[in-house]
Amino acid sequence: MTTRTTHSSTQTKARKRALDILFEADLRESDALATLAERSADAEPPVRDFTAGLVKGVSAHRDDIDARIVAALADDWSLQRLPRVDRTIMRIAVFEIDHTPVPDAVAVSEAVGLAGQLSTDDSPKFVNGVLRTVVETKAGPTTADVASA
Description:
With 149 residues, this protein is an all-alpha fold. Helices cover 73% and strands 0% of the residues.
Protein backbone atom coordinates (compact mmCIF):
# COMPACT_ATOMS: atom_id res chain seq x y z
CA MET A 1 0.00 0.00 0.00
CA THR A 2 1.38 3.40 -0.94
CA THR A 3 1.62 6.36 1.39
CA ARG A 4 -0.94 8.24 -0.72
CA THR A 5 -3.44 5.37 -0.46
CA THR A 6 -2.86 5.08 3.29
CA HIS A 7 -3.29 8.84 3.72
CA SER A 8 -6.49 8.84 1.65
CA SER A 9 -7.85 5.83 3.53
CA THR A 10 -7.08 7.50 6.86
CA GLN A 11 -8.87 10.69 5.80
CA THR A 12 -11.81 8.69 4.46
CA LYS A 13 -12.16 6.97 7.85
CA ALA A 14 -11.86 10.34 9.59
CA ARG A 15 -14.63 11.77 7.39
CA LYS A 16 -16.84 8.78 8.20
CA ARG A 17 -16.23 9.34 11.92
CA ALA A 18 -17.06 13.04 11.55
CA LEU A 19 -20.23 12.03 9.72
CA ASP A 20 -21.17 9.70 12.60
CA ILE A 21 -20.68 12.46 15.18
CA LEU A 22 -22.50 15.15 13.19
CA PHE A 23 -25.34 12.75 12.30
CA GLU A 24 -25.75 11.77 15.95
CA ALA A 25 -25.86 15.41 17.05
CA ASP A 26 -28.42 16.22 14.34
CA LEU A 27 -30.56 13.21 15.25
CA ARG A 28 -30.50 14.07 18.95
CA GLU A 29 -30.87 17.80 18.21
CA SER A 30 -27.82 18.40 20.38
CA ASP A 31 -24.67 20.45 20.02
CA ALA A 32 -22.14 18.84 17.67
CA LEU A 33 -19.21 20.01 19.81
CA ALA A 34 -20.72 18.40 22.91
CA THR A 35 -21.22 15.18 20.96
CA LEU A 36 -17.62 15.39 19.75
CA ALA A 37 -16.43 15.81 23.35
CA GLU A 38 -18.49 12.80 24.45
CA ARG A 39 -17.16 10.64 21.62
CA SER A 40 -13.59 11.82 22.22
CA ALA A 41 -13.58 10.88 25.91
CA ASP A 42 -12.04 7.42 26.19
CA ALA A 43 -12.60 6.82 22.45
CA GLU A 44 -11.05 3.70 21.03
CA PRO A 45 -9.69 4.28 18.51
CA PRO A 46 -9.07 7.92 19.43
CA VAL A 47 -10.87 10.62 17.46
CA ARG A 48 -8.41 11.89 14.87
CA ASP A 49 -7.51 15.57 14.62
CA PHE A 50 -8.89 15.60 11.06
CA THR A 51 -12.23 14.29 12.34
CA ALA A 52 -12.37 16.88 15.12
CA GLY A 53 -11.46 19.62 12.64
CA LEU A 54 -14.32 18.64 10.34
CA VAL A 55 -16.85 18.54 13.19
CA LYS A 56 -15.64 21.88 14.57
CA GLY A 57 -15.58 23.47 11.11
CA VAL A 58 -19.06 22.30 10.15
CA SER A 59 -20.34 23.47 13.52
CA ALA A 60 -18.70 26.90 13.23
CA HIS A 61 -19.88 27.53 9.66
CA ARG A 62 -23.17 25.62 9.67
CA ASP A 63 -25.43 28.55 8.76
CA ASP A 64 -23.28 29.50 5.75
CA ILE A 65 -22.89 25.84 4.75
CA ASP A 66 -26.64 25.27 4.92
CA ALA A 67 -27.25 28.41 2.85
CA ARG A 68 -24.83 27.11 0.18
CA ILE A 69 -26.65 23.76 0.08
CA VAL A 70 -30.09 25.38 -0.10
CA ALA A 71 -28.92 27.66 -2.94
CA ALA A 72 -27.77 24.55 -4.86
CA LEU A 73 -31.02 22.63 -4.41
CA ALA A 74 -33.84 22.56 -6.96
CA ASP A 75 -36.78 24.80 -6.06
CA ASP A 76 -38.91 21.89 -4.87
CA TRP A 77 -36.30 20.74 -2.30
CA SER A 78 -35.58 22.08 1.17
CA LEU A 79 -32.80 21.32 3.61
CA GLN A 80 -35.24 19.55 5.93
CA ARG A 81 -36.57 17.39 3.09
CA LEU A 82 -33.12 15.89 2.50
CA PRO A 83 -32.35 12.56 4.10
CA ARG A 84 -30.42 13.32 7.29
CA VAL A 85 -27.37 11.32 6.18
CA ASP A 86 -27.23 13.11 2.81
CA ARG A 87 -27.55 16.50 4.49
CA THR A 88 -24.72 15.66 6.88
CA ILE A 89 -22.49 14.34 4.09
CA MET A 90 -23.04 17.51 2.08
CA ARG A 91 -22.32 19.72 5.09
CA ILE A 92 -18.92 18.08 5.49
CA ALA A 93 -18.17 18.40 1.78
CA VAL A 94 -19.23 22.06 1.60
CA PHE A 95 -17.05 22.84 4.62
CA GLU A 96 -14.10 21.20 2.87
CA ILE A 97 -14.84 22.98 -0.43
CA ASP A 98 -15.18 26.43 1.12
CA HIS A 99 -12.83 26.33 4.10
CA THR A 100 -10.00 23.84 3.59
CA PRO A 101 -7.21 23.23 1.09
CA VAL A 102 -8.74 19.85 0.16
CA PRO A 103 -9.24 19.88 -3.62
CA ASP A 104 -12.90 20.34 -4.54
CA ALA A 105 -12.89 17.14 -6.61
CA VAL A 106 -11.65 15.14 -3.61
CA ALA A 107 -14.32 16.61 -1.30
CA VAL A 108 -17.04 15.79 -3.84
CA SER A 109 -15.68 12.30 -4.55
CA GLU A 110 -15.46 11.46 -0.84
CA ALA A 111 -19.01 12.70 -0.26
CA VAL A 112 -20.37 10.69 -3.18
CA GLY A 113 -18.54 7.61 -1.88
CA LEU A 114 -20.04 8.01 1.59
CA ALA A 115 -23.50 8.51 0.08
CA GLY A 116 -23.04 5.32 -1.91
CA GLN A 117 -22.12 3.36 1.19
CA LEU A 118 -24.58 4.83 3.65
CA SER A 119 -27.65 6.19 1.90
CA THR A 120 -30.16 5.38 -0.83
CA ASP A 121 -29.37 4.16 -4.34
CA ASP A 122 -30.24 7.61 -5.71
CA SER A 123 -28.16 9.53 -3.16
CA PRO A 124 -24.72 9.42 -4.85
CA LYS A 125 -26.07 11.04 -8.04
CA PHE A 126 -28.11 13.58 -6.04
CA VAL A 127 -25.22 14.50 -3.72
CA ASN A 128 -22.89 14.81 -6.72
CA GLY A 129 -25.31 17.17 -8.49
CA VAL A 130 -25.78 19.42 -5.49
CA LEU A 131 -22.07 19.55 -4.72
CA ARG A 132 -21.17 20.26 -8.36
CA THR A 133 -23.45 23.30 -8.17
CA VAL A 134 -21.77 24.33 -4.90
CA VAL A 135 -18.35 24.09 -6.56
CA GLU A 136 -19.53 26.01 -9.64
CA THR A 137 -20.83 28.84 -7.46
CA LYS A 138 -17.77 28.94 -5.22
CA ALA A 139 -16.50 32.45 -4.74
CA GLY A 140 -12.93 32.76 -5.90
CA PRO A 141 -10.47 35.38 -4.70
CA THR A 142 -11.59 38.90 -5.46
CA THR A 143 -9.40 41.45 -7.19
CA ALA A 144 -8.80 43.08 -3.79
CA ASP A 145 -7.65 39.72 -2.36
CA VAL A 146 -5.23 39.22 -5.25
CA ALA A 147 -3.92 42.78 -4.96
CA SER A 148 -3.28 42.45 -1.22
CA ALA A 149 -1.46 39.12 -1.56
